[in-house]
């Protein structure tokens, strides 16, 4: 089963969080309702990244 939150932090770090601004502009163009939903998801991803950095999992 895919684990998107386990993969996304690494991908976001790979292409940099600076691209978030570019992504948000695209989302704003798509519409306000959709943008709010994705902002919530982005906040969750960012929180997950901070949590991973603060407490790296043992593998």
Tell me what the structure shows.
The chain has helices at residues 4-15, 19-30, 32-54. The chain has 59 residues and is mostly helical. The chain has one domain (4-54). Helix 1 crosses helix 3 and helix 2 packs antiparallel against helix 3. The chain is elongated, with a radius of gyration of 13 Å. It starts with a helix and ends in a 5-residue tail after the last helix.
In short:
With about 60 residues, the protein is mostly helical. It has one domain. Helix content is about 80%, strand content about 0%.
> Which residue ranges are poorly predicted, with pLDDT under 50 across at least 5 consecutive positions?
1-7
- DSSP helical segment count: 3
Oligomer: single chain
Net shape: elongated
- Total domain modules: 1
* Main sheet record: none
**SSE ordering:** HHH
Mean residue pLDDT: 68
| % residues in beta strands | under 5%
The N- to C-terminal Cα distance equals: 18 Å
Please bin the fraction of helical residues.
Answer: over 70%
| Count of extended strands | 0
- The helix/strand class is mainly alpha
Gyration radius, in Å: 13 Å
Give the helices and strands, then pairings.
Elements: H1 4-15, H2 19-30, H3 32-54
Task: List its traits.
elongated; 80% helix; mainly alpha; 59 residues
């Amino acid at each position: 089963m895919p684990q998107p939150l386990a993969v996304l932090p690494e991908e976001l770090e790979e292409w940099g969080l600076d691209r978030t601004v570019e992504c948000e502009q695209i989302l704003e163009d798509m519409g306000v309702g959709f943008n709010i939903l994705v902002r919530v998801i982005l906040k969750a991803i960012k929180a997950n990244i901070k949590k991973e950095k603060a407490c790296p999992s043992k593998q």
